Amino acid sequence: MTEQRKEIFSERVPAGSRMYFFDVKESAEGAKYLVISESRYAGGEPRERHRVMVFEEHLAAFTEALTEAAGIVIGEGASYSYIEHVRRQYPRAYRKWEEEEDVRLAREYDQSKSQAIDTLAKVFGRQPGAIRSRLRKLGLP
Asked: How far apart are CA 135 and CA 129, in angstroms?
């Protein structure tokens, strides 16, 4: 039995050898979702097709990230950097480690070796990879 999908909106955007399609659909259960498709002519080969589906509950975050990325590409976000983006979640990311932080990290790691790296990352305001790297540098596994 085929699931009925109702198409609510469709927009086609030609872009050289590519064609982009933006379709808003509704499932048989009434859930709305966005389908972004790319169709690309591959020189004599059948067209390559790629699709991304974004469901209603994720659309706001998807749209925000897409808008930020597009702003950077077209130059509206020139002062925006990747580091600033990371620091939204990890305020001390890419900052020099202070000696006091090393001592505290070693102490907290020793006190609770079972403590998740993600928890230490939140406590120290640094990315999980930075915590793992610093633990290795301090000679801790």
From this structure: 10
For the chain, give the percent of residues with pLDDT over 70.
90
The tens digit of pLDDT for each residue in 66-94 reads: 877 777 777 655 455 777 788 888 999 88
Q: Is 124 exposed, middle or buried (0-12, 13-18, 19+ CB in 10 A)?
A: buried
Please report how the helices 99-111 and 128-137 are oriented relative to each other, as an axis angle in degrees rounded to 10.
90
pTM > 0.90: yes or no: no
Residue 86 carries which DSSP code? H
Note the pLDDT tens digit of each residue in 95-141.
Answer: 899 999 999 999 988 877 666 888 899 999 999 999 989 998 898 87
CA distances from 86 to 67, 123, 138 (A): 17, 15, 24
Is 134 within 8 Å of 103 (Cβ atoms)? no
In the chain, the N- to C-terminal Cα span, in Å, equals: 54
CB 86, CB 93: distance < 8 Å: yes
Is the alpha carbon torsion for 29, 32, 36, 37 positive or negative? positive
